[in-house]
Automatic annotation (TrEMBL):
Main location: membrane
Pathway the protein contributes to: Carotenoid biosynthesis; beta-carotene biosynthesis; Carotenoid biosynthesis; phytoene biosynthesis; all-trans-phytoene from geranylgeranyl diphosphate: step 1/1
Pfam families in alphabetical order: SQS_PSY
Organism: Lepidopterella palustris CBS 459.81
Official protein name in the record: Bifunctional lycopene cyclase/phytoene synthase
Gene3D superfamilies: Farnesyl Diphosphate Synthase
CDD domains named in the record: Trans_IPPS_HH
Length: 596
């Protein structure tokens, strides 16, 4: 009996597991636990018979004075534990690196070769076939090496055992294995493998485990690292990462195409996951995939705070928040970027008609889709088509449009009309405006949360969370106004209440002429004061949301409120007339929000 092998775990595998757990803990979801537990089970079940065979045939051995003693099928307990901890560590590294990835956008609808509009994404089938041929050849070579016996035996056993698993995972998830960013595929494999190569070199040198001569090639990758060991760790890490990729691929299919899979439980069974992967890619809804890509691109381009925040949400909620963001952004831009007041009013009328049709208020036979394709510009169409209206109530959308109408009330003096018009006379108007453009957004976000997490909560409890959410929306909107005073002035808009201007001896015209100076700064801080009061009053309600939503929701709120904190600092950073939060600071805020 000895402690040598246990010490390998104490010194190398445990500390890494502890570090990765610490880093990933704030992001860990129940679904992640399900993924890791499934992978660990598969790893133990598939490796045990093979490892037992190797030990019984003395291809590798353990001196009795380095292990504790207990064995299962001749495999020392420490070795069995290695299967578990290696799978755990590599899985956590993969989860950490792939967290920002929104998987559905990597799905590809493959048109059948005989499709009237010709093949689309036909190269994917070719890559699949090519991979299958390479793996089949590998398996055959492995079997040949075992048959020949002698020095190629151990290498042959590694290849012949792992080949079928890799080939299966490749055949099921080749779209993701090829298409995902390298940071999700190659990086976790390479980093985990390098770490294990170093541990293995140390263990082999100290004689903790021994590879017998006669069945190994005798080639070293570097001093002390046998080629078989190097290949073994590379292949096992590849299997773990491919397994997780296949899992994410299946989840993406299940969560993206409700027409193909209408009832998806929160933790889909292995059978359902396999069924999803076996679904022909020609059946994927291409418009849906394009809609999701469009929404992700838009949030990446238009709002760094919301884009960063979206990456900490998971599954269907993440998807729907992105789609909601995209719709809100497109609608706001259509109105703001219109070249005339008439055009802006027309967009609002069309958006209202879209809502009427979607929510069935208009007795028209014309389907909303036709209307969208005819009346809206191509780059806006997908965001309207994909809006998840089936589980969002119409009122907040109509109110949002009323908020946009208030924006239009900031009219330039038209011919014959002397005075500038201004819809925000006092704080009541300011609150009404903020309620319409941001309170509504908060309400819609919370409706999505309530839909995706079936909560055992009374109507009253839900309503009190909704009211707090609306107040949080106000806080964000006040920060938005405080940030954009000079940007808005260029568009002829001043959201500061007229009574506030009067108190400072300012007029609408004077602010439009020069939206800077100490008096403006005083009003900016007054508005920020209101923002932070509303924020303090409502942030407690976040803790009443489901555990998995709390951290991400705090990230959304804190990332935006941080703009307000920056504005309160003297000499804050300004980009295109707007105060910005530096990237590192944003990351720190997100990290703190998740760990609170
Ligand atoms: C994570 C994620 C992708 C969330 C999506 C949130 C979402 C749907 C945002 C829509 C934003 C938008 C474009 C709305 C149109 C109206 C508008 C302009 C509102 C202002 C947003 C400012 O965005 P931005 O700075 O990009 O805009 P401009 O450059 O000025 O055009 C707003 C400030 C409103 C934002 C309000 C929210 C996101 C609501 C926040 C509140 C909650 C989520 C509820 C919190 C819950 C509790 C219980 C407290």
């Amino acid at each position: 009996m000895g402690f040598e092998y246990s010490l390998v775990h104490v010194k190398y595998t445990f500390p890494l597991a502890a570090l990765l757990t610490l880093l990933y803990r704030p992001l860990l979801t129940k679904l992640d636990v399900y993924k890791i537990a499934s992978l660990v089970t598969i790893a133990v079940v598939s490796t045990t018979p093979w490892d037992s065979y190797l030990i019984r045939h003395r291809i590798w051995t353990y001196p009795s004075d380095v292990i504790l003693g207990p064995k299962l099928f001749d495999i020392p307990a420490e070795e069995l534990f290695f299967f578990i901890i290696q799978t755990y560590n590599t899985s956590l590294l993969y989860l950490l690196l792939s967290r920002p990835t929104f998987h559905p956008v990597y799905l590809r609808a493959e048109r059948p070769l005989a499709h009237p509009r010709g093949p689309k994404n036909a190269q994917w089938r070719f890559f699949n076939l090519l991979g299958q041929l390479v793996f089949a050849y590998g398996i055959k070579s492995g079997i040949d090496m075992i048959r020949d016996g002698g020095r190629g035996t151990y290498m042959g056993l590694i290849i012949a055992w792992s080949g079928p698993f890799i080939m299966l995972l490749w055949s099921l998830a080749y779209q993701f294995i090829i298409g995902l960013p390298l940071s999700n595929t190659a990086t976790p494999i390479v980093l985990s493998t390098l770490y294990l190569w170093i541990i293995d070199t140390l263990a082999l040198k100290r004689g903790t485990w021994v590879i017998e001569t006669g069945t190994k090639l005798g080639i070293h990758l570097w001093d002390g690292l046998e080629i078989e060991e190097a290949v073994f760790f590379l292949i096992t890490n590849t299997l773990i990462v491919f397994g997780l990729i296949a899992f994410d691929n299946a989840l993406a299919i299940l969560q993206t195409f409700p027409k193909l899979f209408p009832d998806v439980p929160p933790y889909p069974s292995p059978l359902l996951l396999v069924r999803a992967l076996l679904k022909a890619a020609s059946e994927y809804d291409e418009e849906r995939i394009r809609g999701l890509r469009d929404a992700v691109d838009r949030s990446r381009r238009k709002s760094r705070s919301f884009y960063l925040a979206s990456s900490v949400f998971q599954g269907g909620l993440r998807r729907d928040l992105l789609l909601l963001y995209s719709f809100c952004r497109v609608s706001d831009d259509l109105v703001d970027d219109a070249t005339s007041m008439t055009e802006a009013r027309e967009w609002i009328a069309k958006l209202r008609q879209f809502l009427d049709m979607t929510y069935g208020r208009l007795g028209t036979a014309e389907p909303a889709k036709q209307f969208i394709l005819l009346e809206f510009p191509p780059d806006a169409q997908l965001s309207l088509l994909q809006l998840p209206t089936q589980y969002l109530s119409p009122e907040p959308f109509y109110d949002l449009l009323r908020g946009f109408e208030m924006d239009l009330a900031f009219a330039k003096p038209s011919q014959g009309q002397k005075k500038l018009s201004h819809p925000i006379s006092d704080e009541v108007d300011l609150e009404l405006y903020a309620r319409r453009v941001a309170g509504t957004v908060a309400e819609l976000c919370l409706e999505l949360v309530f839909y995706h997490f079936k909560l055992a909560m009374s109507k009253e409890e839900k309503n009190s969370i909704l009211q707090a959410g609306i107040r949080m929306g106000l806080a964000l909107q006040y920060v938005n106004i405080a940030r954009d005073i000079s940007v808005d002035a260029k568009m002829n808009r001043v959201y500061l209440p007229l009574v506030w201007l009067k108190e400072e001896g300012l007029t609408l015209e004077s602010v439009l002429r020069d939206p800077n100076g100490p008096r403006i700064e005083k009003l900016r801080s007054r508005l920020l004061g209101k923002a932070f009061a509303s924020y303090e009053e409502s942030r407690g309600a976040i803790e009443k949301l489901p555990t998995e939503v709390r951290g991400p929701m705090r990230v959304v709120i804190e990332s935006y409120m941080e703009i307000g904190r920056v504005l309160r600092e003297e000499g804050h950073q300004v980009k295109a007339g707007k105060a910005t939060v530096p990237k590192l600071r944003r990351m720190r805020v997100a990290w703190k929000a998740l760990n609170r």
